Amino acid sequence: MMSTIPVSSEVVRVGIAQGNVVRAPQRISTTGLGSCVGLVLYDEGQKLAGLVHIMLPSAPRENVTNVCKYADTGTDWLVSELTAQGVSLASIRAKMAGGAQMFAATGQASEVMRVGPRNVEAVREALARHGIPLFGSDVGGNAGRTIEFDVRTETMSVRTALSGTYCF
């Protein structure tokens, strides 16, 4: 988890269960989105964007040591980071990718194994709680993804092994 705006690298990488904020002309990316969700929040006017790599839907009630790991606390953290940089909550937009169903599941264990779909649902709920519109998503399926967000163009590129690279 990081909270400063880096200035030296053109593409800022975000690791699993981490987050960061960048300003144009920088881009921000993460890899390894299987059941995880990459959530980008951005402000087009200030050319500022943040990315959080979410692993699980909700944080435990106590002793949260890594807020970026969870959809609920990770979204809250990213909103807080952007507003601390002067972004108005009303101007924040969202894009997300990931949330694949990476493991086949049957029987009673199937809900527990639905980590990807549960992550997507939890991110959507957190965005609704903050009143943030979702301007694009590429979620579900059963393939992993790598994403990169270009703050200047507000374009998210998604790369998968099966589908190649595409943007939205």
Q: How many distinct domains?
A: 1
Low-pLDDT stretches: none
Give the percentage of residues in beta strands: 25-35%
The major pleated sheet works out as: 5 strands, mixed
CATH class type: Alpha Beta
- What structural category characterises the helix and strand content? alpha+beta
Summary of the model, kept short:
This protein is α+β, with helices and mostly antiparallel strands.
Write the layout of secondary structure elements.
Layout: E1 11-13, E2 19-23, E3 27-33, E4 37-43, E5 48-54, H1 71-84, E6 93-98, H2 110-113, H3 115-130, E7 134-139, E8 145-150, E9 155-160, E10 164-167
Q: Which descriptors apply to this entry?
A:
single chain, 168 residues, alpha+beta, 60s Ribosomal Protein L30, Chain: A, 5-stranded mixed sheet, 3 helices, 10 strands, 20% helix, globular
